[in-house]
Amino acid sequence: MSSIAVGTAEAGGASAVSVGPSQLRVVFRRFWRDRVARFSLIYIGVVILAAVGAPLIALANGHPPDDLSHQFQMTTVYGLPEGPNWQLKFWLGADQFGRDLLTRTVYGARISLLIGVASTMVALAIGCAVGVVAGFLRGPVDGLLSRSVDVVLAFPILLLALSIRAVFGASLWIIIIVVAFATWPYISRIVRGQALIIREQEYVLAARALGAGDLRIMWEHVLPNLVGPLIVYGTLIIPVNILLEASLSYLGLGLPPPTATWGQMLADGQAYYATAPWMIAVPGLALLSTTIAFNLVGDALRDALDPRTGLATL
Amino acid sequence: MVARRVVWLGVLIVIITALTYTLFFFIPADPAVEAVPKGASPQTIAEVRHRMGLDQPVWLQYLYFFHGPDLIGNGQASGILNWPPNLGYSFKNEQPVLATILDRLPVTLSLAIGGVVLWLLFGLGVGIVSALRPRSVQDRTAMLFALVGVSMPQFLLGVALLYLFYFRIHIFPAPTYVPFTQDPIGWAWHLVLPWCTLAFTYAAAYSRIMRSSMLEVANENWVLLARAKGLRRRDVVRRHVVRPALQQVVTMLGMDIGILISGAVVVEIVFGLNGVGNLAIHALNTSDLPVIAGTVIFAAVSVAVANLVVDIAYKFLDPRVQ
After folding, report:
1. Cα–Cα distance, A100 to A212 (Å, whole number)
2. Rg of the Cα trace of chain A?
3. B244-284 pLDDT, tens per residue?
4. Minimal CA separation from B321 to chain A, in Å
5. B29–A313: do the CB atoms touch at under 8 Å?
6. What is the ipTM, given to two decimal places?
7. What CA–CA distances, in Å, run from A37 to A285, A311, B137, B164?
8. Which one of A99, A152, A203, A287 is most buried, by most CB atoms within 10 A?
């Protein structure tokens, strides 16, 4: 789970670029010119469509995600899952309960995307608030906030996940909060670093000379200048959070069955990996392609926001 | 500096264990009831609860964790501040927690050592080669692999490797832990698949970071100066680009190694290795508070120690740091 650091630490290359409305258009045009980025964005769109239209797919093949009515048709006499069966409209095979893998995978996309995006939003909000305040005010406030970031980083996220689950039950929101709790410190560290740079800029000095208070400067001068890097980190944190949610589900600490989640499906599949590899391949490839697409979009956004990176030659 | 670090480590342990006890307090399961056979008399349950220290208020239980009486009755006081330190006894099997963790440690350490060596070798090597020729064919190929690596869930890669190299083409044995002292070759051979799983995902991240920070450093004036004064390209790269670029990698490494020593949870579960991470998960699933608290402390200490080592390593990489 330490791969959380990956996206953020790397995005550190993107410096604090100010992004206005017209500049956003320039950035987006630069982004759109990148063929790989364009394709990835379209792919993410397809995944979103599949997630939204999951009930339609269930309608098309007639197998709702928790439908157990084909349990005996789609498992062998030994209880092993059967592969694709076109007659019964099991296009991608079944799992150990004879449930349709395609339906469950598209329903799993709902959970993954929802948790991935929502937890990133929450993490960005917390990380941004803490990072800006710590980096801008410095002094004892910074000390206190940075130390609490250290505490959170050293705290085992699995324990938190388990105990929160035990108390409140495992709902979607609980998982979102747990995942956001695990990733906000990384965002906060980067934002703090950027805020430390921004607070020394002349326009901050000018604003202060005009009599602006701390809050006003943070809101009107520091935050807007963080929009660029935050878009990049945000995009790169989404796949990290999707992987984190999948890991939690894989370890049995995510949403409880029978909810279809990719991590849970992979954990089920591992038990049958020798006889029913499709149980791993289908949700596994869905998960992998989604995270790759988000990472590609994040990389392309970083290049588009800061075209200087990568131009150096040694 | 070291003294301040040690004090902070102490504070960190107090905060983190306090949080652990608070969170555990909210878990509704009653370890005493779970520990006794069905139909045990209330008296027995009360006795077991007393031995576990669960009849005390939660703050007192927490104090006992640091310094307390001899609850089990084997002549050793509980608490990590006593000597020898005592992390308490498992609710499940009454084994001393510290001994259990130390018993599991070789597995996790073996996993971590092999993984770290492999991923540094590949991660840094690939990162440097890529940065030397940005946007060349080899750079693009390497970065494609790196992209897949950072997007890859460890459990998916682990299962895929098991399927390919254990089930389909039987090259590697089923991963188990063979003690290094017994059979060094068997030790390595049995751990190849877990190592590769760890190394691929981490090497990908490290190569991306190494590449981007090298390219960032390449823009610095001192690189231009070094070239201008006629230094050979190889020397410029080695002394003025790779060395500063390594700083970011070292920071991450400290963090990652610290976390790994406290358990590569997912990899241990995928390959069924009985390391510290597996112990922690098992304890969590069985509400075994002393083991949970013990592994939490162990994790905090290993992260802090790894970070301390990183700070010392900084001094060698950047002479300005004092």
Report:
1. 60
2. 23
3. 888 888 878 887 887 787 668 889 989 988 888 888 888 88
4. 18
5. no
6. 0.84
7. 19, 19, 19, 31
8. A287
